[in-house]
Write a structure and sequence with these properties.
This protein is an alpha+beta fold and 103 residues long. The protein folds into two domains: 64 residues, Beta-grasp domain (Ubiquitin-like (UB roll), Roll); 34 residues, no CATH class. The chain contains two helices and five strands. The chain has a five-stranded mixed sheet, covered by helices on one side. β3 and β4 form a beta hairpin. The longest helix is centred in the last third of the chain and has 12 residues. The protein is elongated and about 65 Å long.
Length: 103
Amino acid sequence: MVDVLVWHSPAPGQVLECTVHLPQPATVAQALQAAGLSGEGQACGIWGRVCDAATLLQTGDRVELYRPLTVDPKVARRTRFASQGARSTGLFAKRRLNSKAGY
């Protein structure tokens, strides 16, 4: 038997965890099906590394089903930086009086 954790996030801030017991050899697709999830059209991975549905599992693996991104991370960072301003973020947040930028 293979004991596997299946993680799924249906919405931001929510994580559903399910423990699945499968006969040896088991694949990612079988783990998702046993947890009641269909991984069609979605990326999945084991411990944060993307894999395909035919990957074989071992005891203790964590299968993760990923949601598609709603916002490009680069665009989100640029927007956040523009709203905070360059003087109050990163290296410039706690600057000594009369010091050079970045020190």
